[in-house]
Each structure stands twice: as structure tokens, then as C-alpha cells.
């Protein structure tokens, strides 16, 4: 498997871009060189993530029953978020890291939030949720 940057658009040329390997807990700077890794056949859906910093400023969510859940409905176009924590904000980024939508949802005591993103084209997006205690970023696909 090979991760590399062919071209960047509308992003600061000084911005670092990393692939983070969750299994090895290592960052690989894609601005310096391509990252290559040999993997056995299989699905690696949550092993790698795109990062723009090597710092972790907040706690990571754990995968348990109290975790924040994110679901995008292809039929209704609604972004559904459920969280036992108080959600402060939600941001939607395209795969280049550009913010395409943002919602301030502070002071909502709901455990389920429904948001309608505007003008989404087919592609992969990152949803970043900030709560009172942590942040979570998850990939969604729009078809």
C-alpha cells in the first residue's frame, strides 16, 4: 500500500500532512516522502488516518457503549450524531482538509443531533465532533 501526495490545492504550503498508523502509533510525513507499507490481504478500515499535526490536544474517545456515534443517511442527506456527552461543535471537512460546513451546537441537551450539510458532492468527508471532554473525527462517504 502506498500513501502519497500528488498535488495540494487551497492549502498552506507550510502545512504538514501525515498518515497516522493506529497500530504502530507512528506518524509518517507525506510532505517529505511517500509512505509505503506491505500488508496482508484484508480490510484495514480504521488503521490509518489523515492528520495535520502530530500533537494530540484532547483525549481520544474509546470504542465503548458511551462513544459518540456518527451516521450520514444517503437517502435523507442528514448527518445524525448521538452522544452521551454535551456536543459543542461539529465541523465537516473534505478529504483535502478544507472545512465545508460548521455547526455550533453548544447548550443543546439532546443526545441525538440531526444536521443537514449543504451542497455535498459525491466523495469522502471527515466529521469532527467536539464535546465537553474530547474530540472525535470520523470518515463518512457521500454517494
What does this structure look like?
By secondary structure, the chain is mainly beta. It is built from no helices and 13 strands. Helix content is 0%, strand content 43%. A five-stranded mixed sheet has the order 6-13-12-9-10, with no helix packed on it. A three-stranded antiparallel sheet has the order 3-2-5, with no helix packed on it. A three-stranded antiparallel sheet has the order 7-8-11, with no helix packed on it. The radius of gyration is 16 Å and the shape is globular. Mean pLDDT is 83; it is low at 57-66.
> What form results from the Cα inertia axes?
globular
Count the beta strands.
13
- Beta-sheet strand percentage? 35-45%
Q: What structural category arises from helix and sheet content? A: mainly beta
Helical region count? 0
Poorly predicted regions? 57-66
Instruction: Name the average pLDDT.
Output: 83
Strand order of the largest sheet: 6-13-12-9-10
Q: Order of SSEs, N→C?
A: EEEEEEEEEEEEE
Rg, Cα atoms, Å: 16 Å
How many angstroms separate the termini? 25 Å
Assign a percent range to the helix content: under 10%
Main β-sheet description: 5 strands, mixed
Amino acid at each position: 500500500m502506498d500513501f502519497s501526495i500528488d498535488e495540494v490545492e487551497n492549502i498552506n504550503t507550510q502545512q504538514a500532512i501525515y498518515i497516522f498508523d493506529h497500530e504502530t502509533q507512528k506518524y509518517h510525513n507525506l510532505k517529505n516522502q511517500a509512505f509505503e507499507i506491505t500488508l496482508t490481504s484484508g480490510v484495514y478500515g480504521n488503521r490509518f488516518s489523515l492528520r495535520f499535526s502530530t500533537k494530540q490536544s484532547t483525549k481520544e474517545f474509546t470504542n465503548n457503549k458511551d462513544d459518540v456515534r456518527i451516521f450520514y443517511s444517503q437517502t435523507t442527506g442528514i448527518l445524525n450524531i448521538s452522544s452521551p456527552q454535551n456536543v459543542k461543535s461539529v465541523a465537516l471537512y473534505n478529504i483535502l482538509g478544507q472545512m465545508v460546513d460548521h455547526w455550533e451546537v453548544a447548550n443543546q441537551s439532546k443526545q441525538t443531533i440531526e444536521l443537514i450539510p449543504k451542497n455535498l458532492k459525491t466523495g469522502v468527508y471527515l466529521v469532527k465532533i467536539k464535546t465537553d471532554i474530547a474530540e472525535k473525527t470520523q470518515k463518512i462517504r457521500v454517494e
